[in-house]
Write a structure and sequence with these properties.
35% of the residues lie in helices and 12% in strands. The chain has a four-stranded parallel β-sheet with strand order 2-1-3-4. The longest helix has 27 residues. The chain is globular and about 40 Å long. The chain starts with 15 loop residues before the first strand and ends in a 6-residue tail after the last helix.
Length: 172
């Protein structure tokens, strides 16, 4: 038995695309995007796995991530500088292999759960199926809490990606 949830099959053999979604794309999903991208690179999968993020709301489009989220990532050794907020598009449902929403409201905002649409924390080894709380209106400790959840969950996601992609040849 696999130690983590299985991934839906890739649309393109040997490649995988993950889209992360929150409300404004300035806190939770960009933090997860930066961490997952770093973990994918560490695992040697950078050429095979694409990671993107967006928000169901469009009011932050083009902006960098929240300064507190960026500071939390920087303090932990990540580089948040490239992020610019993007707006969710329903076309992403067909463009990505897996869409991971940060909470139930975000999940509803992308059309609800399905084979390729799940909660991000469905992969959390501590609280599978939990929600990533929105730290925006709280203090710095909320961003630390989100980073802790994101890091442990990204470790499981990368393990699932390795398992999935090791079954498939790299067709580059």
């Amino acid at each position: 038995m696999s130690p983590h949830p299985t991934l839906p099959p890739p649309r393109t053999p040997g490649r995988y695309s993950v889209a992360l979604v929150c409300l404004g794309n300035i806190c939770r999903s960009p933090m997860a995007d930066v961490v997952l991208t770093a973990r994918v690179e560490e695992a040697g999968l950078a050429g095979r796995v694409a990671v993107v993020s967006s928000g169901t709301g469009d009011w932050h489009v083009g902006n960098p991530m929240d300064a507190r989220a960026a500071a939390t990532l920087t303090a932990a050794g990540y580089d948040p500088s490239l992020h610019r907020a993007r707006h969710w598009s329903t076309a992403w449902l067909e463009e990505h292999d897996l869409v991971l929403a940060m909470d139930g409201s975000n999940l509803a905002g992308v059309g609800g759960a399905g084979e390729r649409v799940r909660l991000f924390r469905d992969f959390d080894p501590v609280e599978p199926g939990g929600e990533v709380p929105d730290p925006y209106y709280g203090g710095d400790d909320g961003f630390e809490e989100v980073l802790t959840m994101v890091e442990r969950t990204c470790t499981v996601i990368v393990g699932a990606l390795q398992e999935e992609l090791l079954q498939e040849p790299d067709e580059s």
